[in-house]
Structure formats: structure tokens, C-alpha cells
Design a protein that fits this description.
Helix content is about 45%, strand content about 15%. The chain is an alpha/beta fold and about 400 residues long. The chain folds into two domains: about 5-50 and about 290-385, no CATH class; about 60-280, no CATH class. Helix 5 links the parallel strand 2 (about 100) and strand 3. The longest helix is centred in the C-terminal third of the chain and has 35 residues, at about 350-385. It is elongated and about 115 Å long. The relative contact order is 0.15.
Length: about 400
């Protein structure tokens, strides 16, 4: 084969591969919300979480009302007695936390008394979002008190029922955007009560009401947990001992079965308060939120894809597809894991890998079609050969 023919064949191979990679990427962008692509990506994301290094958060502490607390302190009665719950909140505030998030329904509390009692304290109160998506009505906090810092516990399950996402803001039926509990808790922790944000008809440029993935630090044990019983004992620490809540972001929530506030996550089942703790921790300054891939990572991924495509050209057709299927997923997962650990980015390797697989299949199909055509042409030429003169024998065929 001449150099010109060889160069043309390589150019056709490369352009076909690049075209299919681009086509696959375009199809993925159009079908990003389809069930198949979402299942592939969420399975990949869950695998990354399961292999994540787990360290205890130095910033966030969870105070949980356990089953034992629910029975002994609150008499096993729901909703929880407001006076006793306020006693727990008072105990936490005596420990001088940087901020406190209360993940309980306080809509039935005495508005004036509660407002006067906690005015000026770094507390973010939970409020419910009632109704269906697109027509949500915001519930009350502290009996409907005005000018208090509150937020919605905005975590949402995917189609498979697993919680992987939360929202910074929730759009209400009145057209206003309401901050999440995690968002305001971070703001109060960083800037004090002045950082708390209320409902607004518009969002700032760096704010969003779109779902964002929670970069889970880990399961329940990556946060220090205190029960009410343990909390009361800490009030009697010896002089000079450092209060365990001093300067911490504290979340108060229910871990008792009657609360029915447990959800499946990539880190197994978690109480709602622990999901919020993960959302808060991931959004603190210096921590890594789980972002979509930056542009440079996409570009690098395609550079690697082109290198793989070129390398496979010099491998026999028999082995190229086998090598790709065996090594491709392993390579993609390594790149994915490194991006996840170093940059807090989740990379979808589906377009590049699928594009190259399709290209290899197409190349095999073209090669098979070309060989069949050449075989037919050879048979036609043999039929057109002149008959062998009498007395002369035809060359023997291999195996004949």
C-alpha cells in the first residue's frame, strides 16, 4: 500500500473516531436527564463516595435526640415539648457555638416569648416547604415570628430514592427564593447573624435554586455526635476544660425512630440532620463542594481519548476492541477518582469511552464489509479467467 493510501486510511480512521466521540458527547448532553445516563453516573458517583478517605469534621458537631432521649426526656410524645426542647437549645448555646441549626418544627411555639428569648443568638431555625414542587408554600418558624434567621432543610432524593442533592434556595409559590438551612447556617458561621439571608424575589449571580450534589464527607461517624444525656453531663466539666461546642457549628435534630427522618444516601441510611451536616461541611470555606467538571478537565479527557484512539490504530483489529473493553473502564475510573479526590469534581467518562467503542465497532464493520467486497471481486475475476487449455493441469488449491 502506498504512503498516500496509508495516510488517507489513517485520516479516515481518525476523523471517524473524532466525529463519533463528538456525536456521543452531543447525544449525552441532549439526553443527560435520561434514566440510563443518570444511572450510569450515579453508580459511578456512589462508588467514588464508598472509596473516599474519611476524616472527622473539625467544624461540625451534631446533637441528636436519640430513642432513649425521646422516651426519658420527652416521654415518647410527639411533637416534642417546646419547653424541654428549648432547654436543650439553651444548653447548647451555653457552650458558645459559632452557629446553631435547629432541625425541628417550631411553628406552634409562642412567637413573642421565643423571639424575645433567642433574639441576637446565632441560631438558624428550620422551616418546612409544603406542597408540590413548583407551588411550594413556606411553613412558619418560631410560631411565625418575623425577622428571624431560618432556612429550609432542602435535600432531595433522586429517581432511585437515594438522597444525593440539595438546593441553596427554594422557589416558593409567591415567586420568592427562600434560603436553605445549610446555606444560612454557613453564612451565620462565617459572617455572624448579619450574614443570614431572608427571602428575596431575585438571586445574586453566584446563587442558585438548581439541585447541587452533596459532597458527602462520609457516613454518620465522620461527625462528632452528642446525645442530650451527654450534653447535660458536659455542663459539669472541670474548670479549665475546653467546652466541646466552643466555636463549632452545631446541628440539633432527631435520631429517634418516631421522627421518621431517615433517608437512603450513598453512605447508607442517614438521619436528616446528618445530611444537612454534610451539606454544611462541604460548603464551608476551604472545603471542597462537589462540582461538575471544569472545562480544562473535559479538554484533557478528550486529549487522552484522542491518544487512545491513535494508539488503537496500530493494534490489530482482533485485539483493539478487546483491549478497549478491558482497559477503558479501568482507565476512566482512575481518571475519575483522581479528579474527585484532588479537585472535588465529578467527571462523566461516558461520552469519550462510548464514542471510542462505537468507533471501533464501526471500523470492524467497515473492515468486514471491505473484505467481503474484495472476496466477491476476486470470485468475479476468477470466473472471467479463460478456460484452461486441454492437456494442462490447473494449479492445485491449498488443501486440495
Amino acid at each position: 500500500m502506498s504512503k498516500i493510501s496509508s495516510s488517507r486510511k489513517f485520516r479516515h480512521y481518525l476523523l471517524t473516531g473524532l466525529g463519533l466521540m463528538a456525536l456521543t458527547s452531543a447525544i449525552q448532553e441532549l439526553s443527560l436527564r435520561t434514566r440510563l445516563v443518570k444511572r450510569l453516573e450515579t453508580a459511578n458517583l456512589d462508588a467514588l463516595f464508598s472509596g473516599k478517605e474519611r476524616k472527622v469534621s473539625p467544624d461540625v458537631v451534631v446533637v441528636s435526640i436519640t430513642d432513649d432521649d425521646y422516651q426519658t426526656v420527652f416521654g415518647g410524645v410527639s411533637p416534642l415539648n417546646a419547653e424541654k426542647l428549648q432547654g436543650v437549645i439553651d444548653d447548647i448555646l451555653e457552650g458558645h457555638p459559632r452557629a446553631l441549626g435547629v432541625d425541628f418544627d417550631t411553628s406552634a411555639w409562642d412567637a413573642r416569648a421565643a423571639k424575645n428569648k433567642y433574639d441576637g443568638q446565632p441560631v438558624v431555625w428550620a422551616r418546612e416547604a409544603l406542597g408540590e414542587a413548583g407551588s411550594l408554600t413556606m411553613g412558619k418558624a418560631l410560631g411565625g415570628s418575623e425577622d428571624i434567621c431560618c432556612g429550609v432543610p432542602a435535600y432531595f432524593p433522586d429517581e432511585d430514592g437515594i438522597v444525593r442533592e440539595y438546593k441553596e434556595f427554594i422557589k416558593g409559590s409567591d415567586g420568592k427564593y427562600y434560603p436553605s438551612l445549610a446555606f444560612n447556617l454557613v453564612k451565620v458561621a462565617v459572617r455572624g447573624r448579619e450574614g443570614c439571608q431572608g427571602a428575596s424575589p431575585t438571586l445574586e449571580r453566584n446563587q442558585s435554586d438548581k439541585p447541587a450534589r452533596v459532597n458527602f464527607r462520609g457516613p454518620k461517624n465522620v461527625f462528632d455526635h452528642l446525645s442530650i444525656g451527654t450534653l447535660s453531663k458536659l455542663k459539669n466539666l472541670p474548670a479549665g476544660a475546653a467546652p466541646p461546642l466552643l466555636g463549632k457549628i452545631v446541628l440539633l435534630g432527631g435520631a429517634y425512630r418516631a421522627a421518621r427522618d431517615t433517608y437512603p444516601t450513598p453512605m447508607r441510611y442517614m438521619d436528616g440532620v446528618d445530611i444537612i451536616a454534610n451539606s454544611v461541611d462541604a460548603n464551608l470555606p476551604g472545603n471542597k463542594g462537589l462540582a461538575d467538571s471544569p472545562v480544562w478537565l473535559y479538554v484533557w479527557g478528550y486529549v487522552e481519548g484522542v491518544a487512545l484512539l491513535v494508539g488503537l490504530y496500530f493494534v490489530s483489529r482482533t485485539w483493539s476492541l478487546i483491549i478497549l473493553v478491558v482497559t477503558g473502564p479501568a482507565y476512566a475510573l482512575v481518571v475519575n477518582w483522581l479528579a474527585f479526590q484532588w479537585a472535588g469534581a465529578f467527571v462523566s467518562f461516558v461520552p469519550c469511552f462510548v464514542g471510542i467503542v462505537i468507533q471501533q465497532i464501526v471500523e470492524h464493520a467497515f473492515e468486514y464489509h471491505r473484505l467481503r467486497q474484495e472476496n466477491r471481486e476476486l470470485h468475479e475475476q476468477l470466473k472471467r479467467l479463460p478456460a484452461t487449455p486441454a492437456g494442462l493441469s490447473t494449479p492445485s488449491q491449498p488443501g486440495g
